[in-house]
Amino acid sequence: MPDAAHLYNNPPSVDSTVGGGQMNEFFYQKKALIDARREMYFMPLADTVSMPKHYGKRIKVYHYVPLLDVRNVNDQGIDAAGAAIADGNLYGSSKDVGTITSKLPVVSESGGRVNRVGFTRITREGTISKLGFFTEYSQEAIDFDTDAELMMHMNRELVSGAVQISEAALQIDLLEGAGVVSYAGDAVSDITVNGESADPAVVDYRDLFNLSLVLDDNRTPRETKIITGSRMIDTRTIRGGRVMYIGNELQATVEEMVDPFAAKAFVHVHQYAAATATLNGEIGTVAQFRIVVVPEMLYYEGAGAVVTTNPGFRDDGTNYNIYPMLVVGEASFTTIGFQIGGKGVKWQMIHKKPGVDIADRTNPYGEIGFHSIKWWYGTMILRPERLALIKTLAKE
Questions:
Q1: What is the CATH number of the domain that holds 251?
Q2: Where in the sequence is the domain holding 217, given as residue range(s)?
Q3: For the segment 217-268, what is each residue's pLDDT rounded down to a tens digit?
Q4: Do 108 and 242 belong to one domain?
């Protein structure tokens, strides 16, 4: 049996005696995904699911509401005195001492038919869709282009474009699926997001602190698992705060934030990066949130109040723009993953080179080839109460 140290590229860290290690470690698609992963911000947070064949295009799941929860609405309640009550959730989500004391499930010496409770379950549903696009190229592009790696770059850009499309669609689903929506300043709706009121709609430390309290009440974990690398089996846990996504328009606002004691509230990522795992695009932490800047973060153009005398906020010329700050809690959504699983990629690419085999009546000389990519996309919001959104103005 040959010495393991002399086997070809086995293990990868040991060079072969015939001239060094293997140069091409990845198939083009995998290498393209590794490049595109640098642009993924939201997909790594998803609980990815596998959609089996012959089960339609919808994903459904049951969410069982806890007993002591205001959402557990049912008509099966019987109180400690044996009388029927509207809801069989005892005291629900109340934190009031008096309410809890009056609803404790006390059992008398004789017992009896008392303290009956009920349970509620919610059906969550998501729909998947097929997406795809293609590009064409000529035989002369291969023969005369100065880039010898033209095909590899085209392959990479196809995957990168597909990832960006899926990221944008996912981001929209998360923004629209947020169960907790708050506004900065004195705004109470999109049209009241104003930069000229007594309390302009500019996010501050108190807004973040109050949002954190709401997420605490919703039992949103303070840690988040993310998919790393290019395979769904590679994960790591982000601790020390919930993840908040912002656009680069809000970076200055966040970094200039101060706490109630007028001290700087923002802590740069380089001050703690050595002690914990960090996220792609993470710039720092403030008020129990890990802040991630997404260059392609979406916003609501001209959705705010009408501009009269703008004191220095971004607008579309007529109305103020609204910029979201999105918090994605642990296990809040699932998606059809654009990652590599254990048995192959989650998309299909078709490449037909120019030549005789591709010639037909629409391409009689066989001079035109094409690349195409198609994939399935779908998102299901599992815990909307763990998705939170602050809507704010951004400084110019």
A1: 3.90.1690
A2: 26-65+121-396
A3: 888 988 766 655 444 444 555 556 788 999 999 999 999 999 999 999 998 9
A4: no
C-beta contacts of 345-352 below 8 A and 24+ residues apart: 345/29, 345/30, 345/33, 346/375, 346/376, 347/159, 347/162, 347/373, 347/374, 347/375, 348/373, 348/374, 348/375, 349/29, 349/155, 349/158, 349/159, 349/373, 350/134, 351/155
Q: What residue has token string 């328009």? A: 249
Q: Are 141 and 369 in contact (CB under 8 A)?
A: no
385: left (phi over 0), alpha (psi -120 to 50) or beta: alpha
Q: Do 379 and 241 reside in the same domain of the chain?
A: yes
Token pair for 23: 């140069």
Distance CA 230, CA 29 (A): 11
Cα 13 to Cα 181: distance, rounded to the nearest angstrom = 51
Could you report the per-residue pLDDT of 145-182, keeping only the tens digit for each? 777 777 777 888 888 888 888 889 999 999 999 999 99
Q: How many domains does the chain have?
A: 2
Q: Which of 119, 147, 181 is the last residue of a domain?
A: 119
Report the C-alpha gap between 43 and 204 in whole angstroms.
28
> Whole-model pTM?
0.78
Beta-carbon contacts of residue 333 (< 8 Å; ≥ 6 apart): 45, 46, 47, 173, 174, 177, 379, 380, 381, 382, 383, 387
